[in-house]
Specification:
The protein has one domain: Cytochrome p450 (Orthogonal Bundle). The protein is 48% helix and 10% strand. Helix 5 runs parallel beside helix 15, helix 7 packs antiparallel against helix 11 and helix 9 packs across helix 11. The mean pLDDT is 92. This is Cytochrome. One of its GO terms (molecular function) is heme binding.
């Protein structure tokens, strides 16, 4: 899948400022061992390579592997900019993803309406709808005795909740899911750009209508955002709406897939959850622990000026990747990080939703969707496993994920 993307950008010659001993071949789209355990595949590089290394893959970029450095990079937009967050970088003619590819202080003004629209009190009002949607899906699957968890549940729950939140037709979900998959995991830059164009074509009439006749839905809020006393332009509104759509559809589905994959293979952990589904504090802690072990999203940064960071010389324009998932797998930050312990002291250390100004504004809703899955699924289907003879399909990239997870019960 990812070899085609790499082939589009021939591996660069090692830059003069990169020491030979820090060169490691690491392709974010093709991590050895990821077909068994994505997070452990990443961790193998953390354990065997320099804390910060350079790879020639995907245009050439640095990788920071340790929690201390990942957090420092995420919290320092002055030196590590968000202006390009994908690997390889999208072509310069592509508009920035708003507000993700904006830096403070401009970023705050664009992020504010999204944050307010997803405050805990707003998500609390959605909880019944999230639970009802989960129950409806599970009740439909239960008599079958089997399903592909990703296609039949993990992708459906988030998109139904999201489409209701932005007041778009649920019937549009199949086409949007296909476009999102191509945009996030497309095999070539052409496929990715075509998917972005498809999303833009879909959103154009909706954004136009909500700017002319705003409602109280999330889409109306973001496409009419007030920035320094003026409504954002149409192009910015389109970019904002596209980013929110991608974030609302793919990342939660990926995390749900990882968690279901883990529970299908670990009956003792599954039973611990089943025994305490009504213990809210326990369940909240368990969710944080599952998130810590199963990070999904990645965002790269651009080095803004020549600088020395942890003994490594970085040049302006260098790309650097601080993988969110490696934060929670670092034994320097987390005791016995490979052990999933639902009683781990709170707060459970992880960076699944990022750190600092760009912490994911949808984190509250994501946690609520995970809780709905755990409670409603385990009440109805407490014992399940990976279908004998079938193999889950796992993928790495800017968003790691589970593409297929055949389960039986």
């Amino acid at each position: 899948m990812t070899a085609s993307l790499a082939a589009e950008r021939p591996a660069p010659v090692r830059p003069e400022h990169v020491p030979a001993e820090r060169v490691v071949h690491f392709d974010i789209y093709d991590v050895p061992g990821a077909d068994e355990d994505v997070q452990l595949a990443y961790r193998a590089f953390q354990q065997s390579c320099p804390d910060i290394f350079w790879t020639p893959a995907n245009g050439g970029h640095w990788v920071a592997t340790r929690a201390e450095d990942i957090e420092a990079i995420q919290r320092d937009p002055e030196r590590f900019s968000h202006r390009r967050v994908t690997l390889p970088p999208m072509p310069p003619e592509m508009p920035p993803q708003i507000p993700l590819e904006l830096d403070p202080p401009v970023h705050a003004a664009y992020r504010r309406p999204l944050t307010r629209a997803l405050l805990p009190k707003v998500v609390n009002a959605l909880e019944a709808k999230v639970n009802d949607t989960a129950v409806s899906l599970i009740e439909g699957l239960k008599p079958r005795g089997e399903c592909d968890f990703v296609a039949d549940f993990a992708k459906i729950l988030p998109i139904v909740v999201f489409l209701d939140l932005v007041d778009l037709p649920r019937a549009d979900s199949p086409g949007l899911l296909e476009l999102t998959e191509d945009a996030v995991r497309g095999t070539t830059m052409e496929v990715k750009q075509r998917a972005h164009a498809g999303v833009a074509a879909y959103l154009h009439p909706w954004v136009t209508a909500r700017r002319e006749r705003p409602g109280d839905d999330l889409l109306s809020v973001i496409v009419n955002a007030d920035i320094d006393g003026e409504r954002i332009g149409f192009g910015e509104a389109m970019a904002f709406a596209s980013l929110v759509l991608f974030g609302g559809l793919d990342t939660v589905a990926s995390v749900l897939g990882f968690i279901a994959h883990f529970l299908a293979r670990n009956p003792d952990h599954r039973r611990q959850l089943c025994d305490r589904l009504d213990d809210d504090a326990f369940l909240n802690g368990a969710i944080e622990e599952l998130l810590r072990r199963h990070g999904a999203a990645n965002t790269a940064r651009v080095v803004t000026r020549d600088l020395e960071f942890k003994g490594v010389f970085l040049k302006a324009g260098d790309m650097i990747l601080p993988p969110n998932l490696l934060y929670g797998l670092d034994e320097r930050r987390v005791d016995d990080p490979l052990r999933v312990d639902f009683t781990r002291p709170f707060p459970v250390p992880h960076a699944v939703f990022g750190n600092g100004a760009h912490t994911c504004p949808g984190a509250v809703l994501a946690r609520r969707e995970i809780k709905a899955f755990l409670r409603e699924w385990l009440r109805r289907i407490p014992d399940f496993q990976v279908k004998p003879g079938a193999k889950p399909v796992l993928a790495t990239g800017m968003v790691n994920g589970v593409l297929s997870l055949p389960l039986v019960w």
